[in-house]
Amino acid sequence: MYKRISKKQSSIARQRATKIIQDVRKILKTKYVFAHRLVGSGAWGTMIEDENGEYDLDYQLLLTVNSHVYKQSKDFPPPTEIKQDFLSAFEQVKKGQETFQNSTTAITLINKDSKPYHIDFVIIKTFPQNDFIIRRNNKKETPSENEFTWNELPQWNDAYDYFRELSPTEKQNLIENKIIPAKQKEKAKSESDPSKISSSALFVREVNNYRCQQKKK
């Protein structure tokens, strides 16, 4: 059974994420300057817990042109170097039984104690044009060697803008009757299921479906 998680219930995870980001920012301040934002289900109020009572939060770390390394060369270091710099900083701020996993796109906080949450931190650059995310892209010749590249993010702003403009009642209806039930179905799928999609893609799909339905009325 998958249950919805309220913002109040997730406050411990959001507070921990904020503290981690603050500490990482201090460690990397001589090289990188970045903003951050909560995205995905945590920002939209569509979080659900899985059968183990666990839930996820997603944060974007947004590199800026005020970064010292960018000011020096008008460019950032290779993505592999950036990911390693951030991973090293995260490792320095972990506490208790926390571990950080170097995932395909994210640096993932894993709790090995009783805390029921995981947190994904992804690194983004928002210029010169569209948003780009750091993603693992290992070479076939050396599959065991982690190599990361910049990859353009999907342009989903249209769906986000539409959702923001909905009335509180419409948002609640869409979340409770469309998005949450769809997320419950996705959560039940195996990780190896090729039809499984991300929370972000699901959100955009359901918002666009809702918009089409409203146009037909």
Descriptive keywords:
two-stranded antiparallel ribbon, seven-stranded mixed beta sheet
Short characterization:
By secondary structure, this protein is of the alpha+beta class. The chain has helices spanning 11-28, 41-44, 68-73, 79-93, 157-165, 168-187, 199-216, and strands at 3-4, 34-39, 48-49, 55-63, 98-102, 106-111, 117-125, 132-136, 148-152.
Q: How would you describe the overall organization of this protein?
A:
The chain is α+β, with helices and mostly antiparallel strands and 217 residues long. The chain contains 7 helices and 9 strands. Strands 2, 4, 5, 6, 7, 8 and 9 form a 7-stranded mixed β-sheet that branches. It has a two-stranded antiparallel sheet with strand order 1-3. Helix 1 crosses helix 4 (79-93), helix 5 packs across helix 7 (199-216) and helix 6 packs across helix 7.
Tell me the span between the first and last alpha carbons. Answer: 34 Å
Cα gyration radius (Å): 18 Å
Beta fraction: 15-25%
- Biggest β-sheet strands, sense, barrel: 7 strands, mixed
Shape: globular
What is the string of SSEs from the N terminus onward? EHEHEEHHEEEEEHHH
Total of helices: 7
Which stretches are poorly predicted, pLDDT < 50 over at least 5 residues? none
The strand count comes to 9
Question: How much helix, percentage-wise, in residues?
Answer: 40-55%
**Which class best fits the helix and strand makeup?**
alpha+beta
Mean pLDDT value: 88
